[in-house]
Amino acid sequence: MSRIAGRFAALKAEGRAGLVTFLTAGDPDRATGQALLDGLPAAGADLIEIGMPFSDPMADGPAIQASSLRALNGGANLVSTLEMVRKFRTKDQLTPIILMGYYNPVHAHGVAPFCVEAAAAGVDGLIIVDLPPEEAEELAGPARDQGIDFIFLTAPTTDDARLPVVLASASGFVYYVSIAGVTGTASASLDTIGGAMARLRRHTSLPIAVGFGLKTAEQVTAVGKLADAAVVGSAIVQKLADGLMPDGKPKPGLVGEVLAFVGELSAGLRLVKA
Amino acid sequence: MQNRNTLRAGPDERGHFGIYGGRYVAETLMPLILSVERAYAAAKADPGFVAELSYYLSNYVGRPSPLYFAQRLTEAFGGAKIYLKREDLNHTGAHKINNCMGQILLAKRMGKRRIIAETGAGQHGVATATVCALFGLKCIIFMGATDIERQAPNVYRMKLLGAEVRPVTSGAGTLKDAMNDAMRDWVAHVDDTYYMIGTVAGPHPFPAMVRDFQSVIGEETRTQIMAAEGRLPDSLVACIGGGSNAMGLFHPFLDDSDVQIFGVEAAGYGLDTAKHAASLKGGAPGVLHGNRTYLLQTDDGQINEAHSISAGLDYPGIGPEHAWLNDIGRVKYVSATDHQALEAFQLTTSLEGIIPALESSHAIAYAKTVARDLGPDHLMVVSLSGRGDKDVATVAKALADGALPPGDLS
After folding, report:
1. Which of B53, B136, B164, B321 has its CA 20 to 30 A from that of B8?
2. Contact between A129 and B26 using a beta-carbon 8 Å cutoff
3. What is the ipTM of this complex?
């Protein structure tokens, strides 16, 4: 069983939804990024998304745009991102790692070598924002061959006619983008999310994670009652940004503060049975 | 390609020109892009739509634009007979309006009330604001903060036309960043908004649709050169940023194998420097802004900023059909530097009384470099894609900075 399937099975056995956390690789620098990543499972992250920094993050709002830029200015690239995962895997064999980002850095690295290196580093899934199902197979195929799940996004604009197209080759879990918009901006109402979950479950038996616009522990707890996992990205990244000094260096205690915030986000999920 | 006997049949049904093009966008936008594709397919098959577009092109844009024999440039270049396709004489002063007129009629058909667009030099922004004023639609133009500074007259024109100009400060504040923010806005306003892309790039169907709307340039040129010379030209020359004026001129001639075709990229300070905008000659294939094409990028796949004295060519990508035409060798892609463009700008102004856009000056500059060798029997059509009034301040500054002494006209 893959780490992703294993983790969702374990969550189901516990009777609760999972917390998926997002950080950009190498933000604000490699050492701090590694310390954050390594601390996430103990802080309460059930699955971890790592952003692959890109110069032109078109689907992201200001918080993740700035985060991507900080990481690039700190020298991060695809090779250093995989190195982070490799180091993480020496300490944690169970928490799934999903790389999230845009296609061009992967394309430039070479699809085939990337998939081999990512699998060897311990990557479990890929979310490539600008690869809709119509274009995804050139990466999704080689990724699957290496045992990496290719996770598709579904959106409020993905109607019933189109859902089967998106879900046809989905594996791992389904990511529901809860708002039409970029990351970290507006939040959808719980009613809307509930309706979307009912619609998605008619089309798939895969676990569903809900993201975009979840910022608080209350929202995470509430979404946890509707979905299999809740994703928090911009709010965590913003917490990190708030802990930087004017010169961009981390203030003492930043890692602890970000991880404490992750702990708050996860606490509600651990109390409430789904 | 479905039909192997023509180079004009592309793209395939998924928007690919060879390996280029496609629809590399977030899922949230995919249903919207599919709806644009369906609406455009229906519109171009509808005689009512075709007639309406034709009416506005004639009576509002002022088409056909003249094909003008540039006698004094021909003499100065000392070889090929130079014809200028006068897109500078269109309403709003450039070829951009051809595309905007087509797309605004489509947006109206789709019931969209809010139009967004990106702009670099401001020409596409002005053309978009113009058609929005004409049809009473809300208009928001995304423009890099750097470009707002260097194209102040166009910014004011857009505001007069009723558009809101939104400064984009991400990245270097130029065209690619404006396109990023336009896409971010579109994804957040999917219900009422139409994104009027200004060049032959972006996700399918935009590269094909914009090409179709710009092909009026090449179709008129065929008719006009036949009337003037009784035969097709020997060569075509056009400048390329995203490449819409070039694609519009080239496309109707792609199957005429005797017609040589030259696309001129902006070489900025030179292709051997980091300061240029030549995606084909100085870039590598990648994926950005919804399509696979040649991009200026690092080995890690991060996008580089382009540089050109002409803001309209200052883009790190190029339309996917150009990428394909480059790879199959049908079009020869060359380049001209800032310096050469400035020289051509002054020559055309002083010899023909025509102030060309700095963008178009790149095409004229290339014509100058090859005209003598081609000889007097050679008919060359150069796309004069826009007028240069907007560039006068930039040119004055460049000449004052010593980029090219005014007396140095060989």
Report:
1. B53
2. yes
3. 0.95
* A175/A179 Cα distance (integer angstroms): 12
Per-residue pLDDT reduced to its tens digit, B71-105: 999 999 999 999 999 999 999 999 999 999 999 99
Residues whose CB falls within 8 Å of the CB of residue A65, separated by 6 or more in sequence, listed in order? A57, B170
Give the C-alpha separation, A81 to A17, whole Å. 27
Instruction: For chain B, give the percent of residues with pLDDT over 70.
Output: 97
**Dihedral of the CA atoms A77, A82, A84, A88 (nearest 10)?**
170
Q: Is the dihedral of CA B246, B386, B284, B271 positive or negative?
A: positive
For residue B304, the number of C-alpha atoms closer than 13 Å in the C-beta half-sphere is 19
Residues 10..39 of A with a Cβ closer than 8 Å to B: which? Answer: none
Please say whether the beta carbons of A135 and A127 come within 8 A.
no
pLDDT digits (tens, 9 = 90+) for B333-352: 999 999 999 999 999 999 99
- Helix (H) / strand (E) containing B69: strand B67-69
What does CATH list as the number for B64-93+215-401?
3.40.50.1100
Confidence of residue B3 (pLDDT cuts 50, 70, 90): low
Q: For residue B354, what are the contacts with CB-CB under 8 A and spacing of at least 6? A: B84, B88, B348, B384, B387
pTM for this structure? 0.96
The structural domains of chain B, with segments of one domain joined by +, span: 17-59+96-206, 64-93+215-401
B320 cis-preceded (ω within 30 degrees of 0)? no
To the query of whether residue A60 is one of the catalytic residues in this protein, the response is yes
CB B253 within 8 A of CB B237: no
In angstroms, the separation between the Cα of residue A60 and the nearest Cα of chain B is 8
Tell me yes or no: is domain A3-270 CATH 3.90.550.10.
Answer: no
The domain limits of chain A are 3-270
pLDDT digits (tens, 9 = 90+) for B159-202: 999 999 999 998 778 889 999 999 999 999 999 999 999 999 99
- Confirm or reject CATH 3.40.50.1100 for domain B17-59+96-206, answering yes or no: yes
Say whether B188 and A185 touch across the interface (CB within 8 A). yes
Nearest to A49 by CA among A22, A71, A76: A22
Report H helices in B16-144. Answer: 30-44, 47-56, 71-77, 96-109, 123-135
Contact A155 B28 (CB under 8 A): yes
Distance, in Å, from the CA atom of B116 to the CA atom of B137, rounded to the nearest integer, reads 10
Is B343 marked active-site?
Answer: no
Distance of CA B265 to the CA centre of its chain: 11
Average pLDDT over chain B reads 95
Alpha-carbon gap, residue A261 to A243, rounded angstroms:
12
Decide if A157 and B28 are in contact by the 8 Å CB cutoff: yes
DSSP state of B251: G
- Specify whether A49 is catalytic: yes
pLDDT in tens, B368-397: 999 999 999 999 999 999 999 989 989 999
